[in-house]
Automatic annotation (TrEMBL):
SMART domains listed in its UniProt record: Ami_2, PGRP
Name of the protein: Peptidoglycan recognition protein 2
Family: Belongs to the N-acetylmuramoyl-L-alanine amidase 2 family.
Domain (Peptidoglycan recognition protein family) ranges: 359-505
Signal peptide (UniProt feature, chain positions): 1-23
This protein's UniProt keywords: Immunity, Signal
Domain N-acetylmuramoyl-L-alanine amidase intervals: 372-511
Gene3D superfamilies: Peptidoglycan recognition protein-like
Source organism (scientific name): Nannospalax galili (Northern Israeli blind subterranean mole rat)
Amino acid sequence: MKSQGVLWVLLGLLLWLEPRTASLPLVMDFIIQALTELEQKILVTQVNGTASAWILSAQDSSLHNPLHRHLLLKTENHKATELGPHPLSPEIQDLISEVAQHDVRDGQEYGVVLAPDGSTVAVQPLLVGLEAGLQGHRVVDLPLNCLATPCDAGDDLPDVGAIWPGLRNASPDASIPDVGATLPNGKTKASTIVERLLAITLAGDLSLPFFHSPQTRSPPGLGTEGCWDQLSAPRVFTLLNPKASRLTMAFLNGALDGALLADHLNQIHKPHPPLSHLLRQYYGAGVAGDPEFRSNFRRRNGASVTSALTLAQQVWGALVLLQKLELGHPQLKNMSQEQLAQVATYASKEFTEAFLGCPPIHPRCRWGAAPYRGRPTPLRLPLGFLYVHHTYVPSLPCTTFALCEADMRSMQRFHQDTRGWNDIGYSFVVGSDGYVYEGRGWHWVGAHTLRHNSRGFGVAFVGNYTGTLPSEAALLTVRDLLPSCGIRAGLLRPDYKLLGHRQLVHSDCPGNALFSLLSTWPHFTATEN
Ligand SMILES: *[C@@H]1O[C@H](CO)[C@@H](O)[C@H](O)[C@H]1NC(C)=O
Ligand SMILES: *[C@@H]1O[C@H](CO)[C@@H](O)[C@H](O)[C@H]1NC(C)=O
Ligand SMILES: *[C@@H]1O[C@H](CO)[C@@H](O)[C@H](O)[C@H]1NC(C)=O
């Protein structure tokens, strides 16, 4: 209850504060500090869940999303303001009021912070996820016979069990179902259920932008990245695609973090740990000492607990519920169940393949790249080759964002100043921190494999792999994720060939240990052509 109260305060602060220009950098550490301050205050004053009143007493206008109102606020009915209107130190308060609403406007994104792993995270879906996790599972049954008219969506139903954690046991099913066969069409099922944790964190928001460009391709900028004005004290986040929908990379990160942490909170025994503690671990070394359970590996963790099929059902359910809750919804009002199911399936497939199924790639601006010197040459895509390198120097794998970004800059300096190249040579560089770092990227000719630079992408592992191997996560990225993502996007040929640098140029690269492993990979080819 105490942790829950903290969140309500955070979400509710918006209503009490005139947004002012905050001066603190927009970084996750200050969100964690805000939680710490609130948790101390709640501990000292011994109030119980009173912070929820902050939101409720303000005519629930703080959460514009009807799904949030329906699934999150309904149970809370306290009336108290015992913490006073200003429980936070003023500068933290300003920061919170600035970031608590997520928005995309005029090519800029608001309500996002820079996390220690270098990812950008939307705060609101993260907090909403935490709140849902503290409240626990609740499923809303949607009997199909009530779909035609407004009807109460099953508030009194018993909790029929855990849907989202239950997926851990389900076999991962990446294949995309035929809508009619798996989503309710009157033949297969008489009802469907909406699970609160997923509906609130992901499912409710995921599909709406797809109504603008249904069935043809992703809405503009699904997973759009952006650049901070400065990395040391970030304040302004400008999107790389000015036409991006709300489903930006930061939003997807925040929603997925919210969903994963909700799932975690829901599973552990009470009392819940302080949220500040949980977030510090999740955006640090890992929750409860588990280095796999942290923001660096959010996609892999997300992919292991859900599938496109399950997600499609939840998205569909959330759309149906939203249609009930908001009768005049501009995008949903005249939609049939089948149309909603189609959009839900498509959105879930896009999310699963283009987000969960791709490695996270830090754009150039994130590691502080110097500009390209001169004019880059475009590649003629798709390419048919992937050339694997190790960096040799730096010889140690980089295991944190701070180390990897510094390595990227030092390699770029070496390539530009000492070698006299236009830019860092590699197309992509793979750290041992769970991230890929964009070098020349998918579209521009690199300088990695002499005489072959226009034919293939050059991908380098940071480190010296003469005697040892890169981390499992890094290997998986180069063996599976990066190529399948490139193939899906039409940048790499499905029958691409993978070679080690040494097969084309007189060199030991990518190291004996790594090369002998490469030679067992499916796309490895022993000959040059
Ligand atoms: C606060 O919560 C505790 C335990 O959850 C309960 O025993 C106590 O009565 C509550 N106090 C108030 C004022 O509601
Ligand atoms: C949409 O629904 C409204 C009533 O809800 C109806 O008047 C209108 O004709 C419908 N439009 C279409 C294109 O079906
Ligand atoms: C790379 O590793 C090999 C084998 O472990 C070692 O002999 C060599 O000195 C290392 N090179 C650098 C630059 O660290």
